[in-house]
Amino acid sequence: MKILDRYVARTFLVTAGLWFVVLMSLRIVTDLFVNMDRFARADTPREIIYNIGLYYGVHSFAYFTELGGIIVVAAAAFSLARMNKTNELTAMLASGVSLHRVVWPIVLLSMALSGLIVMDQELVLPRLAHRLVQRRGEMHEQEEFGIRLIADGAGNVWYANTFDPETRQMSRPVVLLRDGDYELMASAFGSDGRPVESTGGDRSGWAMTEARLVRAGEAAASWRHTPSTERVWTSRSPEMILGHTGREAGGSDVWVENVEASDPQYGMIITAERMQLEPAGGGSNQTATLIEPRFTFRADAGQVTLGVFEADRAVWNAGRGNWQLENGRLVVPSDLTVQDLLLRRSSRWLQYMSLSQLNDLLELRHVPNRPAVRLARHIRITEPINNLIMLLLGLPFIMSRERNIKASIGLCLLLVMSFYAFIHMCRNIVGMPPEWAAWLPILLFAPVAVVMFDSVKT
Fold first, then answer.
1. Could you tell me the pLDDT band of residue 249, with boundaries at 50, 70 and 90?
2. What DSSP state is assigned to residue 121?
3. Same domain for 167 and 227?
4. Quick one: which of 263, 301, 403, 456 could link to 268 by a disulfide (CB 3.0–4.6 Å)?
5. Is residue 424 classed as helix, strand or coil in its secondary structure?
6. How far, in Å, CA of 98 to CA of 79, rounded?
7. Which contiguous run of DSSP H or E holds residue 309?
8. What contacts 33, CB < 8 A, 6 or more positions away?
């Protein structure tokens, strides 16, 4: 690297550092001034200071992605403006150095800083997403919030009065279970819900207590009774289950290990570690007990699991034709996680996801607001290009020697802000395809930026 390159690079980096401090401080102080009352709800001054420091320490990474492009353009413009004002650019031209040659270290360093912004967006923000969605003043303890019609990957819609992040518990959850055509298949509701890692052979989901599963549509007619966490009805008696499974005697009792049977009327599969009958020998007065039972209700020809009733034990009630559950719970399979709930409480939750997470989200069969996800994915690609275009749009005015420096800075600011406003206007036009919303500013302004930069008299 030549002495001139080191000098230009050092000037640019120092200016970029100053602009970083100025803009970040202005952003934080302004936000703190407007929202100080929310932090003041804490009990002690020490807790107030802790919440302020933690909140803005975490959000500084998000502010950097928002202000990074402006910092780069401002640092480049003011570095060249200072060298132009002190006639350093004139001396460089007199020595036979092209202005394009002078600017290249700034352009390369600007691209490197844009790379840091991308790394912050892809590596840091997704790991801090659970903190970024927290509200001011609740950094120590997260407040309860309502779940309002959040869709999971299967298209099921979730609602709950409140969700407590500390206990990871829903209050009064309601789930609308839908098929591939968004038709209602069933609904599940209970007193509370908690996440579970797995439901046996099924995917993870949420376990509800004091819950019921209500069938909807034409299939509701085949369900003579509504299953709940207290009792599950079936058209298959223990004798019918034994007739398909076989018997194994042990002592004075009869039991069957690894019970599995189906009930076509309810679309249900019954499984248990063991079924025990007392006394042995059968008869109408025989009592049957299932150990660790699972009653899996399916729909759509067995392709979709509506819910799984689990219990410690289930006792057969011959008079009513149902199984009475002990410590029963209803597990509704879902890919909705606690982190998803925390993220989606914020309107900016897509901005805190990495590009790979956005791609995974688009691969799901049902995606909430798919155009918004597609737009967010394209923005991740176009944002570094937009920052470079802003730089190339502004530098020709600063490098020009045909007007005074104040007029040059004013024109530079006007064009850059126009481009910045056009970007956000495209992203907020209702009905515009996500691809056009993200790429239209580049298609229109990139040729202009290249022509302007190339036309500078050097």
1. very low
2. I
3. yes
4. 263
5. helix
6. 17
7. strand 304-310
8. none
Which amino acid, 421?
A
Q: No. of H helices and E strands in the chain?
A: 11, 18
Lowest mean pLDDT of 7-16, 34-43, 272-281, 385-394, name the range: 272-281
Same-domain pairing of 15 and 162: no
Q: Are strands 329-333 and 205-209 parallel, antiparallel or unpaired?
A: antiparallel
Domain span at 33: 3-133+369-454
Name the pLDDT band for 246 (thresholds 50, 70, 90): low
Residues 182 and 71 in one domain: no
> What is d(CA 299, CA 289) in angstroms, rounded to the nearest whole number?
27
> Is the predicted pLDDT of residue 220 greater than 90, yes or no?
no
More confident residue, 195 or 412: 195
Alpha-carbon span 147 to 149, nearest angstrom: 6
Q: Do 393 and 415 meet the contact criterion of CB atoms below 8 Å apart?
A: yes
Integer angstrom CA distances of residue 244 from 12, 239, 260, 274, 396: 81, 9, 9, 14, 84
Residues 389-437 pLDDT 10s: 998 888 888 777 665 777 777 888 888 889 989 998 998 887 889 999 9
- CA–CA gap between residue 42 and residue 51 (Å, rounded): 8
**Percent of the chain, pLDDT > 70?**
89
Domains of the chain: total: 2
Residue 344, C-beta contacts closer than 8 angstroms, at least 6 positions apart: 150
DSSP result, 80-115: HHHHHHTTHHHHHHHTT--HHHHHHHHHHHHHHHHH
Residues 127 and 211 in one domain: no
- E strands along 129-168, which residues? 145-151, 157-164
Burial 256-291 (b: 16+ CB within 10 A, else e): beebebbbeebbbbbbbeebbbeeeeeeeebebbbb
Residue at token pair 């919440």:
51
At residue 197, φ and ψ (nearest 5 deg) are -70, -35
**Are residues 237 and 324 part of one domain?**
yes
pLDDT at 18: 94
Nearest Cα neighbor of 25 from 55, 56, 50 is: 56
Does the pTM of the predicted model rise above 0.85? no
